[in-house]
């Protein structure tokens, strides 16, 4: 199995609902350093997993919908805690939709899986792994 | 599949038995930077894999049993080489016992797997991955 | 010259005033991984620059005044852009006050300088360096 | 499942064929920081996944065949784009051959899998994972 | 003293002249992860050392003149070993010229110093530090 | 001013005397990731600060005198707390002696300064900076 990973980041504000979150129930923020990992069993004719230029560009586009925002104000997250885990799934699902739409190139239809990891600090990170249809 | 990882560290002394260890047969030491990764297929009602506060606290408790010690003197390791691999399994199994005992919260009963990675330097690390019952 | 550095982090929300900040004029947030570096020309009688336990504890205390907050609501920053540079100076000056107050131990009076570095992402960081009286 | 990883690096020149590579069609170069991860379900009698000294030495030997070279001139890669993905597979397959030949010690015959990751920058890396017979 | 650092990277081919370089006399390559640090004693009216957007953009522009190239073919380096040290100075001097030309904004005229660090691997890096007029 | 840094590591056991050290008064251990930074105002005729091959080799030789040892048993440290700070100075002074002895090549006589940084974990490190005669 092959994989390629590209890294970017976002800087967002948000707050959480639920006693389990302690002081993080207050409005605060985070830098998420985001790693998107694309997987496939075989390489395409160019010898790559995915066009890394398109992968980088599309990850930036997906992150651009979240970046420099207060996620508490985003309709897409109404009634949802925007935890690191939830955001990892959101980024992965939006990237998967772009793969399906052909935004990462026709070669990307050979991708079989995707993992998105969000690093919230030097001591904590979360990931969401999914298959691609 | 979702995962959350928290990081902490220990500083221990030990020595190894067996010619394969070369100079590491002498009493020496290591800083192990320890990553504990918790996995589950779905998030709990708060939108998390595990209460990250409890996960951090319980990892610190497990590591506290090893930290600032000469592992050659620990009864738990009598007759055992405390290699990075063995210590990764020890930390994972002790964390798993705490998950089972409810120390990471009732939500943690949804966890299905655990990986512990011990970084012994910038050029070497070991991991142990196990399921949770 | 000797130095010792300890690392911790904060997660805050804020917004900036001024066209130079572009989209960062919106309410957003950041994780700042914070390195506090203490300097002195000679070691104390214990062979250290500073009691690293106290240094870690006092850095955490200073950061605790900022952590999990919307800095736009903090009176201390009214009318001030809480840029990474400004926050680095704030943390350094508050640590310096604690050194002067004896909170890092009597040995810490031998310290001659302090640098605080705030990493806002994997591709950007800022620092403030000052002397200690 | 246990794993052990060792890290080394190479510095090579190469160029790519195919419009997808854009400016990387020109002769350029890369430092690849290479992580070789060895896996097995149980530890050997010494309590290790593999003799880490031999693993480090054999990784260096495999990388020595590529290091400080223009890969465009290497017969082994004639007609092949030496992408990060292709090089990850090359290093993995050559390490696997050395495991089979006994170069990592007789204990290494218990290894069941191998992953090689090549970091081409702070924002991109690729990996190839394979089983061992 | 304040500083702000931004990070980017280049991927180049080159070779060195001189027995001291051993196998690096052959055509090979490197990824250089490049940190540009800007210094000034006081912040500007926006509370920053430099417009970080412009700093990032100008660093990318300077690096774009080197990226994906064989430096042995660049007239600017004819007769010069493009060592990590030499490239650090080149990047620093070209950034300094852009500061002087106003490309980093009028506020950048308050800058007093600049350091450029090139990381050639996880175990080696070089830096060049200079003042700004 | 130019600098070049090379990285290596040691794994040692030791214990400390003095209530300030708390649990670190017990025999424990550490991995120290060691960065040796060499400085000079101008490059030599080859365009380098120092022969990086010799610098790497001599750092390894200096570290080899400490590696895989219990520092409490080393005569050189009798009556001395082998704190991270003290070890940073020890490594720096021993490297400086090798520079003076010509072990880093005749070109190394142009070096004017040296800094040694010891990373004891992902959250703490110490450094010692000195001039070279």
Secondary-structure blueprint:
The structure is a homohexamer of 133-residue chains.
Chain A: E1 2-14, E2 28-40, H1 52-64, H2 84-100, E3 113-121, E4 124-131
Antiparallel strand pairs in A: 1-2, 2-3, 3-4
Helix pairs in contact in A: 1-2
Looking at this protein, list some descriptive labels.
homohexamer; 133 residues; alpha+beta; Tetrahydropterin Synthase, Chain A; four-stranded antiparallel beta sheet; 2 helices; 23% helix
Overview of this protein structure:
Chain A has 133 residues and is an alpha+beta fold. Chain A has a single domain, classed as Tetrahydropterin Synthase, Chain A, CATH 3.30.479.10. Chain A has two helices and four strands. Chain A has a four-stranded antiparallel β-sheet, covered by helices on one side. In chain A, a hairpin with a 2-residue loop joins strand 3 and strand 4. In chain A, helix 1 crosses helix 2. The first copy, chain A, is elongated, with a radius of gyration of 16 Å. The model of chain A has no long low-confidence stretch (mean pLDDT 97). At the A-C interface, strand 1 and strand 2 of A face strand 1 and strand 2 of C. Strand 4 of chain C pairs antiparallel with strand 1 of chain E.
């Amino acid at each position: 199995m092959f994989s390629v990973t590209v890294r970017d980041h976002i800087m967002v504000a948000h707050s959480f609902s639920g006693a389990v979150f302690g002081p993080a129930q207050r409005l605060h923020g985070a830098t998420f350093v985001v790693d998107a990992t694309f997987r496939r069993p075989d390489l395409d004719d160019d010898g790559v997993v995915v066009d890394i230029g398109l992968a980088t560009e599309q990850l930036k586009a997906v992150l651009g919908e979240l970046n420099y925002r207060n996620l508490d104000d985003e309709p897409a997250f109404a009634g949802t805690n925007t935890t690191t885990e939830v955001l990892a799934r959101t980024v992965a699902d939006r990237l998967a939709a772009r793969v399906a739409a052909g935004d990462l190139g026709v070669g990307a239809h050979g991708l079989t899986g995707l993992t998105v990891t969000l690093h919230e600090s030097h001591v904590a990170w979360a990931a969401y792994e999914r298959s691609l249809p």
